[in-house]
Amino acid sequence: MRALRILLITVVVLGGLFIAADRFAVGYAEDEVAAKLRSSEGLQQDPEVTIEGFPFLTQVLAGELDAVAIGIDGMEASNGARKMTIAELDAQMHGVAFSSDYSSATAAAATGTARITYDELLKAAKVEPVEVAPGVTAKVVGLADGGDGKIKVQVQATVLGQSLPEPVEVVSSAKVEGGKTVQVHADKLPKLGAVPVAEQRMREITDFEQVVDGLPEGIELDKVEARADGVQITVTGSKVKLAG
Known about the structure:
InterPro entries: DUF2993. This is DUF2993 domain-containing protein. This protein is α+β, with helices and mostly antiparallel strands. It contains 4 helices and 13 strands. A hairpin with a 2-residue loop joins β7 and β8. The longest helix has 40 residues. It starts with a helix and ends with a strand.
């Protein structure tokens, strides 16, 4: 019986040491992945990286991690000379394979969400006054949640030099085009007082798009939905390059 107790104690102690070593190793790996992502994506701070699955060391020996969760705040995206900030990007990577020297890593598949505030999305709209009819100018002055997944576009109009008392609100739909572009399209065009406005000219104000470039290689936009704190974009990907 004494020998059995000694054996059990030994197994428990060794198991505890293995778990401790495993957790230490995973913590170190998470820090390394975060540092590489910061460098490769030009981030201002390290992202949050969580390597899931246990034990970690056996996954390393196999050369592939089951799942890695990544959270990035304040990621900069660009559309030519125009830049915007993605408030939050949360992604779940699956089947993350890495090279033998750990210098590169690629995820077989990825899902997640990204959030863009209305102030950032507004940068894609025409905020300078545009003449939409003789003596009538209009410009977009704000974006907000329109309910039911729609975006409320606020348009300020000036008729013969006089601004309308309140901005005109336009309910618009948003969609993803080509895996990289968020398009905003007015469901119904507004009336600016009694002045007739050509649809094409008005849509130059109400309709706009924003290219979201600069995401990790392999990740694309899937669908977009308006919410109280901005637009939430579902992202998907395959063969997503995390490092290297």
